[in-house]
Predict the 3D structure of the following.
Amino acid sequence: MTNLAVLPIVTPLLFGVLLFFVRYRIRLQMGLATAGTLATLIFSALLAHTVSKDGIQVLHVGGWEAPYGIPLVADMLAAILVTISSVVTLACLLYAFHALDDERKRNYAFPLMMILLCGVNGSFLTGDIFNLFVFFEVMLLASYVLLSLGGGRIQLRETIKYIVINIIASSLFVIAIAYLYSITGTLNMAHIAQRIAELGQDGLTTTVSLLFLTVFGLKSALFLFFWLPGSYSAPPAPIAALFAALLTKVGIYSIIRTFTLIFPHQPQITHEIMMWLAGLTMLLGALGVIAYWRIKQILAYNVIVSVGFILFGVGVASEAALSGAVYYLIHDMIAKALIFILGGAIISIAGTDKLREISGLIHFRPILGWLFFLSALALAGVPPLSGFVGKVMILQGGVQAKAFVLVALGLLSSLLVLYSVMKVFINSFWGETLLSEGEEKSTGKGALLPSLILAALVVGFGLGAEEILAYVRQAVEPLVDPSIYIEAVLS
Amino acid sequence: MKFSDLILQTAAKVLVFIIMTFSIYILFAGHHNPGGGFIGGLITASALMLLYVAFDVETIQEIIPVDFKVIGAIGVLMALLTGIGAIVADVPFLTQVYRYVDLPLLGKTGLGSALVFDLGVYLAVIGTTMTIIRSISEDM
């Protein structure tokens, strides 16, 4: 199969387009969407398996060799992330089948979710920086529509903010690419990396790298996160879960890719700035996490804290810290989707997201309650679960790099994250029940299957850390030594 | 007040044919001259727009009874199928085939699979533009 690397991009797009033709047949749409995501998942897993066996897979699209055409580069990092994003999309789709109303289902919610997956997978797999921009836009356009779909007042207000901020970030992205193109004369990431390594990263190139950091920081809510809490609490729960699990992670992936491959030569400037931004993100995110009494806001600020934590690992840039960052990135995609789905289930059962008005849900919904408890522990990084390994490795890397202030910040933010999700758990599940039997607004049953899948992964990634780490090590190899990546693409 | 749009309507009937012909020419000229699917689609959409301006929405909807959302989706599907054809043939995604063929009327003509891709772009652009314009006008 020469085309294995393109299948995780083409499959969701093909099924997404097919769904346009069966707009009013919702059951058929549900079947096709499930089949498409499952197929994507199978192809992605096959890709990851091939990469683990035969090394980095490069597909030169259209048969044009690099650096002249667009390469799709599936190294282990991209292959893992593509697989995880397919799993997460599948879970969010399964939840959306129950949680979205018919009006949204008829107005292309499912095709848009598939196209979002296409954009995300494309961003992970591409080896061309302008193509990365294009896949960013594919993903963002789908997210604009998903955010505004339904047209509630809050949704429209938050969509305007979200679109404005992302258009500004995208135009900065184009400007940054233009600068980089005028410096290096190529758009292929491996070729850019090779040329910058030959010329040495001078002051101008470092400035351009900081422009890239700003762009990806805006997209991934690194310090510049002011737009995120509002827009992530506006859409319905399955869509918010999809956003929380995928959108910021693409920004993080782009930072990892650009700063390990293209701009790794002046770490005392770029990585130093990144680390302090990450520290501030953790601190401000943690403040937001403890400040609110509404479930949606607490969960949205949790996204920000984890972004800071992962980028702290990227900033340290030692092998241990990068492995930790990759492991935590994988964990966070799953755990964020899980906790957003469960949070959405709580809100739909109680009919409100104000914590003080919810109480005693464990009497009706014990399974949901214990799943939420499990995911809260996983989010904070309690040992047997998946959040632990990544956190330990990032902190180890931080201690080795003598960044003690940031390590302390990381530990403190973990504590505050645990406090915040436990606050949600204790307030909504414990206590005297305010709802009598049959009075709840919905059964919350739709959340069970997807959250069980994700919870199984959270437990599996914690217990099977040894096997997963073998893959993560392979993913980190080209990050530590970019020449592996460059040779794979250009040879 | 009802006033007659006789001149506008008569002119539109003639102009639409000229604009349509020009847009098709632009679409097929794309390989060797400036033009292609995107600009061709926009010109076709502007011809349809002229009809909407000269007549009313219901009349045009009767004459051209298509859902432009479906047209757009067909366009994307066509563009995608040229890539999927390459996957089936087990050559890199979006590899193009270019052959000279003797056609009955046109003689020796170069035909490339890039043309199918361009037709897809053409339909997608028409579908998108007309969907935007129609849905804005419906809400008024």
Q: What stands out?
A: The two ends of chain B are 20 Å apart (CA to CA). Chain B touches chain A through 18 residues (CB under 8 Å). The mean pLDDT of chain B is 88.
